[in-house]
Design goal:
This protein has 5 helices and 8 strands; from the N terminus they run ββαβαβββαααββ. The protein is an alpha/beta fold. Strands 1-2-3-4-5-6 form a 6-stranded mixed beta sheet. Strands 7-8 form a two-stranded antiparallel sheet. The termini are far apart.
Length: about 170
């Protein structure tokens, strides 16, 4: 059961230093690759994105850096600050514009502390959710050029193979 998807929304609320309750959009590990997981948390009121990750099995591979790049995309897509907290891989604090405010290397004991902007506005992507990919797919299918038929299917006859010749014979 530990590898099954949960039924809870990808949202949690934390207490800020000033006592406010702050809703956070939450994904785990490689869920940063799936905009709808993070987007659901943002649409439900997440004012920042948090992605905890355990990259132990990937050690010094590029996997945790790739996760960080995906999270930068989510930050820009939803105009939210984002934090990737990894046990052994890269950890990042990312601004809503995708720029990296602070980061660590892999397999490095470190603490990152930063003040991040919180946002409650919704980007077009957050508002539209799954409808953008669906509409795009329908549009692509509707307006894509027809497949070219083979000569046999179209009834066309091919020109005979003609090889260039010189006055001395074939080349």
């Amino acid at each position: 059961k530990d590898m099954e998807a949960g039924e809870e929304p990808p949202l949690m609320t934390v207490q800020a230093r000033d006592g406010r309750s702050v809703p956070l959009a939450v994904g785990i590990c490689f869920e940063a690759a799936y905009p709808l997981v993070i987007g659901d948390g943002v649409a439900r009121g997440g004012q920042a994105i948090v992605v905890p990750s355990n990259n132990y099995h990937f050690r010094s591979s590029g996997e945790s850096a790739q996760q960080g790049q995906l999270l930068r995309m989510r930050a820009m897509e939803y105009s939210r600050s984002a934090v990737q907290a990894s046990t052994t891989g890269h950890s990042y604090v990312i601004r809503p514009d995708g720029s990296i405010l602070a980061s660590t290397g892999t397999e490095e004991a470190a603490t990152l502390a930063a003040d991040i902007p919180l946002r409650s506005s919704q980007t077009l992507t957050a508002s539209a959710g799954e409808s953008i990919p669906r509409r795009r797919t329908r549009w692509s299918l509707r307006f894509s050029p027809p497949q070219q038929l083979s000569d046999k299917e179209s009834g066309r006859q091919r020109a005979p193979d003609v090889r260039p010749t010189t006055k001395f014979g074939k080349m």
